[in-house]
């Protein structure tokens, strides 16, 4: 028997969430499948999201895997290329590339082929991460518009506060102003902007997290948006301990029983991708019943409170997140976001499509 931990990926939920995104916007959909499709498995996710007009990711090797698997949609490399050698691969596999720096334009100048590349010029409008500063857009576009290696240009930006009350107004206004003089396709919206700000939809929307059934907003649940959870991380109880008052559990003894307790030991730890920082009180389901983490998360195990679940025992099913327990709730308790938990799923956890 393998260790009882497993992640289930609900493919129909992925398809459903894509429909939710497509119903919210008339723009074309660039499904973001970076980071192994947020931990869900690249090809598995791409198949379920096949109705999208495009895929966005980071790794050239992943883009090649997609093409080799027969996907003919647009594929966008969100950080573009990193070396001159990448460029011929990009052309051979017909990949679209973000260009965010003059160094990338220089590499293009040295590229021997002609009119083969589709470019997404990234404009920095406030994130201050990747992108040309507003004052450099004219120059960059001048170079690219008639560049011998460029076939097509889309203008894009990325929002820093689309999920928060600050919103997108300032960045949207700046982007509109900067892109107005050019008759080029435009792309701005991540999941949060897609759901909340129709004015950002433009030609291409770029949903990520919502496709995987998690809400991009702290104060709105996925269920309220009509999204379905895709990944369920499940394991089983492999031991039960009875604690007397004053006894502790796990490393450092950070949890101390005040009364007699029953503790379940679950085959799941931080080496599986469960966050080590999840404190006592983090929600968990045992046989579908809500209970919580006790003490520190170990590398391969964690401990849960069974005191009020007398029927739970070795072999009981434990849901760490997913169906019945939104990943956002677990993330919130652990002081992080759903994105980190989903894409942090470790390779040693077997994934099963359902
Ligand atoms: C990751 C990413 C997205 C998707 O963001 P979500 O919040 O997951 O919807 C969109 N655009 C870019 C440039 C990204 O890097």
What does this structure look like?
This protein is an alpha/beta fold and 354 residues long. It folds into two domains: 11-214, TIM Barrel; 231-353, Lyase, Ornithine Decarboxylase, Chain A, domain 1 (Beta Barrel), CATH 2.40.37.10. Helices cover 27% and strands 24% of the residues. It is built from twelve helices and 18 strands. The chain has an eight-stranded parallel β-sheet. Strand 6, helix 7 and strand 7 (150-156) form a beta-alpha-beta unit. It is elongated and about 75 Å long. The protein binds pyridoxal-5'-phosphate. Pyridoxal-5'-phosphate binds next to helix 9. The site of pyridoxal-5'-phosphate has 12 residues, from helix 9.
